[in-house]
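Predict structure. Chain length: 379.
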Amino acid sequence: MSLFRQAFLVLAALLCAPLAIAQVQPVAPSLAAKSWLLMEIGSGQILSAEKPDEKLDPASLTKLMTAYLTFSALRQKTLSLDQTLPVSEKAWRTGGSKMWVRVGHQVRVDDLLKGMIVQSGNDACVVLAEGIAGSEENFAQMMNREAQRLGMNNSSFRNASGLSDPQHFSTARDLSLLASALIRDFPEEYSRYYSMKEFSYSNIKQPNRNRLLWLDPSVDGVKTGHTEAAGYCLIASALRGPRRLLSVVLGTASDATRINESQKLLNWGFAAWETVPLYAKDQAAFSPRVWKGAQNQVKAGFASDFIITVPKGMADKIKAELVAPQPLMAPVQAGQQIGTLKLSLDGEAYGDYPVYALESVPLAGVVGRAVDTVKLWFN
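Prediction complete.
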């Protein structure tokens, strides 16, 4: 199993882990939104949510997936920032918010990214989709495949921009997976584009619709969305010290409301919760016994830094226990799950997380295996 796969499974376990017990869980604020969610990026934990799996129109939050696939193409060198892409008549005619590209012109990918991310240009999305996949329809298929890979099991994409369609939907939980993946997998691109406050193209200057960029200096992205069906939506991320929180607020009544509710949620998350680093990446957190192996123990831990989020003031009440199958028999492969870390908080179950072998342990020779066989008889 690859280290990336290990890290992904740890993140998935964190996302599915139970929150703190009711007696100590901070009370989240009430939000004027159809659905919302707050995630701690470092630990991957969802701190609080309301209707996180309700399928809703994502509007321009869709553009996060278009950006993710564009950044992937840049990394794979099938696209370059200085490359120009042609503007088709379809792109030029696309309704909604625009970058104002002109049909028949060639536009740099770098400008198209700024037009999509800062100006929320639907036309820029179509140009990028056609440049990457040949058509927007083909690109939508790519979007859905990537959504499945990221674990976005309640999402369906029909276009690159977020224009309303009965079969185009997502959820607060799925969008948090997408936004956190974008920040995690493309940190340089995220920093470069998503904090931009304005962009000019064809002598038309447009501001970033994420007004939290002006109101809260800790906010450095990510995206707004609005259609009549979706209402006013905002995914925002804030970095305060070593902690990064991600808020997803869907279906508010106005731009002012999505800003106020997002700010309220972020402030509550930073005030009411704290992160606790438990184990460093590749640290031998445990060394369970291995039978019939070339060595008697195996180093076990995590492929990425293991961080847990708890209500503020509860860090000293965390207890960790490794539960591993007994007996653990050789051979053991690096990356193999060999146990489960069970966490408790103030005596109550807090979450279960997979633990992996950090090294391989081959079979012992004939004599070593025979000795351990005898020992197992008596055990």
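Summary: Residues 255-272 form the longest helix (18 residues).
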